[in-house]
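job 3f2a | input accepted
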Amino acid sequence: MDFTLTQEQEQLRALARTWVEREVIPHATEWDRAEQVDPGIVKRLADVGFLGLGIAEEYGGSGGDMLSYCLVMEELGRGDSSVRGIVSVSLGLVAKSIQRWGTEEQKRRWLPGLCAGELLACFGLTEPETGSDAGSLRMKAVRDGDDWVLSGTKMFITNGTWADIALIFARTGGPGPKGITAFVVPTSSDGFNRREIKGKLGLRGQATAELVLDGVRVSDEQRLGPEGAGFKVAMTALDRGRISVAAGCVGLARGCLEASLEYARQRQQFGKPIASFQLIQEMLADMAVEVDAARLLVWRAADLAQRGEPFGTQASMAKLFATEASIRVANTALQVFGGYGYIDEFPVAKALRDSRVMTLYEGTSQIQKLLIGRALTGINAF
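job 3f2a | predicted structure (382 res):
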């Protein structure tokens, strides 16, 4: 397994790093306080090609492999996890699902606008009473001639209030995963309502919403994939999405490490930089190991996915380790900063708050352990 980056990948990583330094980091604290990222960031993400990574050029994408995508997600995660989430959901979960499952007409209808930042997408799976047990979702889609009528509620939907289209999963058949179908639904449809969720612990700048669909009518041409295949559509998206979240957490943790190194070199106590103290060096060393270990797990999963080999278990391992590591690293960084780490004038307080939710969405840490355990034992604990 060779993880030497190509020249193109190195150039993309450098581009992403420079772009984040200019377009994201100077504004991250302000966006966090205001509980809203600048909506103009969507078009700027598109202009630099980040909303088309992995999408074929014939559909308006910028191409690139899975590892290239992860390199950009790491840099965006370092800058602001709220911005990384915009890309992970609109591109990673929705646009790539349309590319994988869509008809030619669906690809040409939706993908160019998503890649160009003219459209933004959200992923409507979670419901008020259905989180980890996604196969039991309650939103219904009832057939009416050539149309479907969707009714129900989705909860904690990233990009929910900004999105122009939503990939909605609804029950079209009997109970369980095989009764679920996916639909691409314009958010301007009659009966499509949304409410922004404020007061979050972290990812405060991200547009998170409750979606209420009240008799929303869609044509059968808006169905994504076969009828009854919605659960498979969702799970294949989330397998790759977990790699994206993990890559973003590598960036978040790396940002904490870099900030801690700079602070420890400058902060003087007892007449010397605190970086000279053994226990501070121990904390910095632990953080560095966590960052590198998480990155290697992400790159392994991305490499397997790109080569078309089974990668679900490796994606779960990367997601489990990187998300939990981001909390540990952010918490250690706050300890290095001391009292200054507890105020949002410095980046580590926000990083700690943002890191906490990573162990919850796109499969909790406990769900990842059960997936890994099933792969190891052959016994399904669900």
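job 3f2a | The domain at 7-120 is CATH 1.10.540.10 (Butyryl-Coa Dehydrogenase, subunit A; domain 1).
job 3f2a | closed
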